[in-house]
Amino acid sequence: MSQEEKPQILHATNHYLYYPDEKDVPAYLAYGFRPVFLLLAPYMIISMLLWGLVWSGAINIPFMDNVLVWHVYEMLFGILTIGALAFLSTGLPELFPGLIPLIGKRLKYVVLLWVAGRISFWLIDVTGVYLTALLNLLMLGWLIWFGRRAVLDKLQRHASLGYTLLALLIIEAWFFASMAGHASTPPIDILKIALGGHVVLILLALRRVNMEAVNELMEDKGIDDVYVSRPPLTNLAAFSVILFSVVEFLYPANSALGWIGLAVGAAILAVTNDYILKDKFILNQPYVIYLSLIFIMLGVGYALMGWAILAQDTHNISHFRHFITSGGIGLSYVMVMMIISWIHTGRHLTSNIYTHSMVAAVVVATLMRGSIPFFENYSDELYLYSSLIWTLPFIIYIKLFFRFLTAPRADGVKG
Predict the structure, then answer these.
(1) Helix (H, G, I), strand (E, B), or coil: what is residue 58?
(2) Could you tell me how far CA 410 lies from the centroid of its own chain?
(3) What integer is the mean pLDDT of 335-363?
(4) Hey, which of 41, 82, 187, 403 would disulfide with 394, CB 3.0 to 4.6 Å?
(5) Where are the alpha helices (DSSP H) in 222-285?
(6) 76 in a domain, yes or no?
(7) Could you tell me if residue 350 is inside a domain?
């Protein structure tokens, strides 16, 4: 039996005591992350391939009036809702004993709601803004309701996740109000605000993911130390992102925004100090490198945007913003999918040529996309090839993990 196939018993097993006694639940509906990742990987591939072909001029999508808004919305809110479903439905039952895991028919109906939201937004010119808004806001609203235990927790240990989702729900409602003509703010400007909210949510979520993944890794490696993600570093980074987003919305041409961008980059990069432990050196561990690259991509993106603003080169801000979207956010989804698919199917956290390639592809695609300002004569090619390379991690994910998602846990535990 290979390393990746060896069973693993997790410490966080509270949900097993409250697992529903539902009969004939297929493996792909046995826990929240399973159907999500089975859909998310191919959806990422299709969405990015279409975008690359459209933006490079290879094809045209006649039923979409504003392809840019479609692309940005889907890469933010479309992916957020299904990603949050996987994260919350997997993590909350372990953090709050007594919360019944979402499985079977209930899980299937929620996933179908997300699918309906995606179809409606792709065909928004046919289905209309109001139906599309209803389906998508209902999905995010349900997620907030499902995660209400975190907000209502007296200790407020994970309440920040709930508050951030609530803020994103308000921003999404604002976006649809603009699409329907009830708000004067251009939709793309609202989506820039939403990007800041997404980065904050990812920073908060990564603090939890790091705690589980890095400590699990050190235990497997026999490293006698404890990794602690320090809230002040994450909170400072989150505050700086919020400040940048607000100032960019109100005063996009103000040079002060450039200095704020540099400060945000520094604040996010500072979070990587958590990986420097007192007694043991772990910066040579593959998953530590993978996870640290998320903060590096996010930090570099904000710093480059700040530099472009100070250089009065606002035309290239959107290119540098892709270090945040394609790089930081894209890699965070890859890592969450990878980590959950190892650990929560009862296996050891494993690194190999496949995991190395998944991370490397995101980094290479981001560097290609972000380099367009320096190679404008090759912009069409860079748009297309970066999109193609960015899909590789999800193609590899299908090959490596789909067999885990469609089979019972390797350790025999329910879920």
Answers:
(1) coil
(2) 26
(3) 94
(4) 41
(5) 231-250, 256-270
(6) yes
(7) yes
Rounded to 10 degrees, what is the CA torsion of 182, 186, 189, 194? 30
Q: Which residues constitute the domain of residue 70?
A: 3-405
Distance CA 37, CA 31 (A): 11
How many other CB atoms are there within 10 angstroms of residue 193's CB atom?
Answer: 19
Query: Distance (Å, rounded) from C-alpha 366 to C-alpha 354?
Result: 19
- Could you give the CA distance from residue 321 to residue 285 in angstroms, rounded to a whole number? 28
CA separation for the pair 168, 120 (Å, rounded): 20
Average pLDDT over residues 160-186: 94
- The 10s digit of each residue's pLDDT in 219-259 is 888 888 888 888 899 999 999 999 999 999 999 888 999 99
In a domain? residue 415: no
Q: What are the CA-CA distances from residue 100 to residues 15, 114, 147, 160, 364 (Å)?
A: 7, 21, 12, 22, 41
CATH number for 105? 1.20.210
| Within a domain: 297 | yes
Q: How many domains does the chain have?
A: 1
Residue 339 neighbours by CB under 8 Å, 6+ apart: 209, 212, 213, 287, 349
Q: Nearest CA to 404 among 27, 23, 10?
A: 27
> Looking at the predicted structure, is the pLDDT value of residue 110 above 50?
yes
Q: Please give the structure tokens belonging to residue 346.
A: 């009862």
pTM metric for this prediction? 0.91
- pLDDT for 58 equals 66
CA 181 to each of CA 112, 191, 205, 238: distance values in angstroms, whole numbers, following the listed order: 28, 16, 34, 31
- The confidence score (pLDDT) of residue 359 equals 97
Per-residue model confidence (pLDDT) at position 61: 64
Q: Is 33 helix (H, G, I), strand (E, B) or coil?
A: helix
Q: Which residue has the tokens 């890859």?
A: 334
Asked if 381 contacts 357 with a C-beta cutoff of 8 angstroms, the reply is no
